[in-house]
Amino acid sequence: MKSLKSKMMAVIIPMVILAIGSISIFSYYFAKNIIVKNANEILIQTSQAYANKIDGWLTMHLEMIDSVKEAVEKSALAPDAELDYLKHMVNKFDNVSDLYIGTVDGQMIDGAGWIPPDDYDPRQRPWYQEGMNKDKINFSKPFLDKVTKEMVVGAVVQIDHYDGTKRGVFSGDVSLFVDELVTEFSATSEELLASLENVLAAIEGVALAANEGAEGTTDIANRICDTNDKANEVRTIVTKTKKSAEKLKVEIDRFKI
């Protein structure tokens, strides 16, 4: 009897151990896959949220600059009054470093007080040539502002005289503080902080976030990040945030039942 019991135990125990082991392994991988899936969804959703906030920030500045252009176009101010108005609006708007007009006859009217050299012709500048092709305000390619020495992007659009005849191009320079903007939106949890890598990479022009399903980030990247200088600044921030992303990955990999 004892021999039979021992034989049965010898058969049953390995089967039980195998069954428990199989269930444990299955549970481990099943639970781990759920955690990885949920973590990826958090990263994608948060990346999209940041992208939406950045896009909203950019749209807000476009609308502000366009409202100044509309006021100038419809008011028919005297030259001195017009210049005073532009100066006032430059001082009023945060992150807008200049508002200016380049005319079809080569005049330059600058709200920041910059006085161009005698040989300066706005019609030869890329922002003017780009703006002449835009009947709706939009961003130009980023460039280095000669006055502030900062990277800016111009919001450019055609501008007419009060009587409807073409006057030239209206432009407003927006300082590229997108890295600071993203930092303001950063959250405290590791999952949300890790998603900054996606957003910043998208700003740099890398479609990482888009590849993960965060639509809209590459469009923002194409709008504002066409320069190596800005890309280098973003890379510095990306490097810092990678540590947080790696922490999250380590925690997922260590998950055990």
UniProtKB/TrEMBL annotation:
<feature type="transmembrane region" description="Helical">
    <location>
        <begin position="12"/>
        <end position="31"/>
    </location>
</feature>
<keyword id="KW-1133">Transmembrane helix</keyword>
<dbReference type="InterPro" id="IPR029151">
    <property type="entry name" value="Sensor-like_sf"/>
</dbReference>
<keyword id="KW-0812">Transmembrane</keyword>
<protein>
    <submittedName>
        <fullName>Cache domain-containing protein</fullName>
    </submittedName>
</protein>
<dbReference type="Pfam" id="PF22673">
    <property type="entry name" value="MCP-like_PDC_1"/>
</dbReference>
<keyword id="KW-0472">Membrane</keyword>
